[in-house]
Amino acid sequence: MLQCIPTRFEEQRLAALYRYSILDTPPEQYFDELTQLIAAICDVPIALISLVDSDRQWFKSKVGIEAESGPRSTSFCGHAIHQDSLFIVEDAQADPRFADNPFVTEEPYVRFYAGSPLVTDDQQILGTLCVIDRRPRQLTDLQQLALRTLSHQVIRELELRRALYLADHRWTLARFKRRLGNLVRSSLDLDQICQLAAQELGETLEIDHCSISLCTEAVALCSMSHYVRPEHIHHPIQWHLPDTLAEKALQQDQAIAFDQYPAEKAPAVQSPQSLLLVRTSVQDRANGLIALAHYSSRHAWTSDEIDLLESVAVQLGLAIEQAQLYRSVQAANLELHQLAYTDPLTQIPNRRAFDETFAELWQTALLHQQWLSLIVADIDLFKTVNDRFGYEQGDRCLKHVAQMLKAGIRQQQDFIARFGGEEFVVLLPNTDTEGAIAVVTKLQERLAQSDTTQLPVLPTLSFGIGSVIPQPQHTPEQLFRVANQAVRHVKGHGRNSFAARLLATPE
């Protein structure tokens, strides 16, 4: 077994870890939501935020295991922190480095491991966000992206906490920063965060106007939130920050302060008398701009006000990045879900979606003692279509049938899926045999009357119906078997018809 060894810059790495004061702290919802999210995205039973101490790995958050920590010497994370990219072991039993590792041979029986290092801004690696499975496997590109993205989120949260701690040297200003920090940690609603930040800044500093804008390109600004002092609420602010000044503010870290803003020649609208600008950024990349303005009188900006604004800009920069990354993860997660639960050819649910839905509807019918019917539909002589006209025409036929079946059921109640090949399944909750026969009759009519000009032949289907009021001794598999037997009976006696059977209660 390959033992873990200290990193090349172990002393600096440990110093970076300890400065966050995160070890041995209680579980927290923010981190737990990240591990739950990555476990769901990667479809694994175990996910961890693992911080590697001098002789142990400690889990800030965990899904799927009970242990709070483990020895560093045999940890997978101890190897992962030696590189700044994903560390993946697809099959630990086949990997000579880990085949006899106690985490492989004993609980939790690790077969697959993927860890994304938690890299600080000064390039120190604190640990990993990792996912673990008990079977060998691979991650898709989207899952790898999600793992890297959420590991960045862990670091962003730690950096945010450290920035808050270092900046908490003035009571009045610290109170505001804590409120904003709590909001950033508890919400991914960027509109809400920016609006409350603008209001808090305006009220805390007693200014006339505060605006927070996002930038998507080098200079392009998109206004997010505004605060206007109540006595000025009926006098809308019409002045716009000049592009040249916005560009200058976005290119430098420090705030730009005007105690007396230069009056514009023949201004069309009232310009501010005093102005304070600071960009929000992440890793020296501007992602927004905060502007504070006094219109009614001149104002000399104090160092405390400038320090507060720069501190808020750090938090908002992280909040903006966090929200944008979360949206990316949501989009990736939605795409993964669609890939996992949708048949790519027909664009209706697949067998995996059917299995889960069948189990849910079965439990509902069992609990409320309601009818549940299952229809198994098989395209007649589909192999002949493929053989005579080619697979492209066969695919058209499958898509046509799928859409006809989908359009012929109750959209908010019933469920249709492609079970495999030329076979489709329909679940009819709260529907007895008579009702299921009516549905099949309607589907047959719809198919017979559908526009098939783009198809080589008019497809027909054989239907098998199984119905039951589930009892504790019944199983979903039994109902499927009854419906499948019915469709086989139809196919053996002429096709293009249906047969219905009840799932009998065992004696």
UniProtKB/TrEMBL annotation:
It comes from the Bacteria. Residues 370-503 form the GGDEF domain. The keyword Nucleotidyltransferase applies. The keyword Glycoprotein does not apply. GO terms for molecular function: diguanylate cyclase activity. Its EC number is 2.7.7.65. InterPro entries: GAF, GAF-like_dom_sf, GGDEF_dom, Nucleotide_cyclase, Rev_trsase/Diguanyl_cyclase. Keywords: Nucleotidyltransferase, Transferase. This is Diguanylate cyclase. It comes from Synechococcus elongatus PCC 11802.
